[in-house]
Amino acid sequence: MTTQTASAPKETTQTAPAPKDPSAPQIGRAPRTTAVSGGTAGADQPAADRGRTSIADVVVVKVAGIAAREIPGVHDMGGGLSRTLGAVRDRVPGGRANVGRGVKVEVGERQAAVDLDLVVEYGVSVMDVARDVRENVVDAVERITGLEVVEVNITVNDVHLPDEDESESTGARVE
């Protein structure tokens, strides 16, 4: 019969820490980040594997917004109030366009879902524009961030008419 002495190693069980609440505020950090690659530490590892990469949600928002605006037939993005406020902000000297207007994302550890609000030009096929936007957004987000895009939901909020440009630029009702 064997006896165990006090110096013999004891078997221990470790539990993983409880996941943090994603809605809890994180002081001193970017609003929401997602770890894309978990590297390992050590001088014996290849340089590309040393460390971890995290992507903030705002990065995915901006990439998706720029990719959607690149498609011919997309006049603007966002709902009515957001477009109005954006137009005012764009006219302020030193102001810059908000490329994230009309874009909402949900980002997980390896995947992302994107929701877009579009205004399309009159005369273009809404279905063709939506398809082209979807393809461009998926390609850009996956290429730039490495996240898999599981869906791109598109809502067309308005159609931009050609004569709307004239009335917006003059500002006067009569000449």
Task: Describe what this molecule looks like in 3D.
The chain is α+β, with helices and mostly antiparallel strands. Helices cover 30% and strands 25% of the residues. Strands 3, 4, 5 and 6 form a 4-stranded mixed beta sheet that branches. A two-stranded antiparallel ribbon has the order 1-2. Helix 3 links the parallel strand 5 and strand 6. Helix 1 crosses helix 3. The protein is elongated, with a radius of gyration of 25 Å. It starts with 32 loop residues before the first strand and ends in a 5-residue tail after the last helix.
Helical proportion, percent range? 25-40%
Rg computed from alpha carbons, rounded to a whole number of angstroms: 25 Å
CA(first)-CA(last) distance: 108 Å
Q: Which percent band covers the strand fraction?
A: 25-35%
Whole-number average pLDDT? 77
The beta-strand count equals 6
Low-confidence segments, given as residue ranges, are: 2-30
Treating each run of at least 4 consecutive H or I residues as one helix, how many helices?
A: 4
Largest sheet: 4 strands, mixed
Would you tell me the structural class of the helices and strands?
A: alpha+beta
Give the SSE order as H and E letters: EEHEHEEHEH
Spatial shape:
elongated
Summarize this entry quickly.
The protein is of the alpha+beta class and 175 residues long. It has helices spanning 57-69, 80-91, 126-145, 164-170, and strands at residues 33-38, 52-56, 74-77, 103-107, 111-121, 148-160.
